[in-house]
Every structure is written in C-alpha cells, then in structure tokens.
Amino acid sequence: MKLFRNLLADNEGATAIEYGLIAALVAVAAIGAMSQLGTSLTETFGQVSTEMQDAKTAGPITTTP
Questions:
Q1: Labelling 60: which of 32, 36, 46, 53 has CA 20 to 30 A away?
Q2: How far apart (Å, rounded) are the C-alpha atoms in residues 12 and 63?
C-alpha cells in the first residue's frame, strides 16, 4: 500500500508529459494548417495551369498599327 501512496505522490515526469502533450497539440495544428495550405496551393496552381493552357491555344496577340 505504501508503494501506491508513493507513486501517487510522485510528480516526477509530469512536466515531461505536459511538454509531450503540448508538442503533440502543436504538431496536430501544424499538420492541419499545412494540409489546408496544400489544398489551397493545388487549386491556385491548377487555375494558373488552366489559364496558361487557354492562353497557349488562343494563339499570339496581334495588334494592328
């Protein structure tokens, strides 16, 4: 019984666990942000690619003096 009381009273390692939980939370937030950014970049580059393909098939711009 004394062993259990000593284990419950021992706070050693609690700080390391707290830092681990904070690091995990930061990692989850970073992954979510990067995922959203990746989706946004994919859409943007897709739109740029489409515009460039449309410009290529339209031919050169000619002006008459």
A1: 46
A2: 79
Does the pTM surpass 0.85? The reply is no
DSSP tally for the chain: helices H, then strands E: 2, 0
Structure tokens at 5: 């009381």
Reading phi first (left if > 0) and then psi (alpha if -120 to 50, else beta), residue 13 is in left
Q: Residue ranges per domain, the chain?
A: 1-58
Q: Considering only the C-alpha atoms of the chain, give the largest distance between any 2 of them, rounded to a whole number of Å.
A: 99
The CA radius of gyration of the chain, in Å to the nearest whole number, is: 29
- CA gap 50, 41 in Å, rounded: 14
Instruction: Give me the mean pLDDT over the 12-20 stretch.
Output: 84
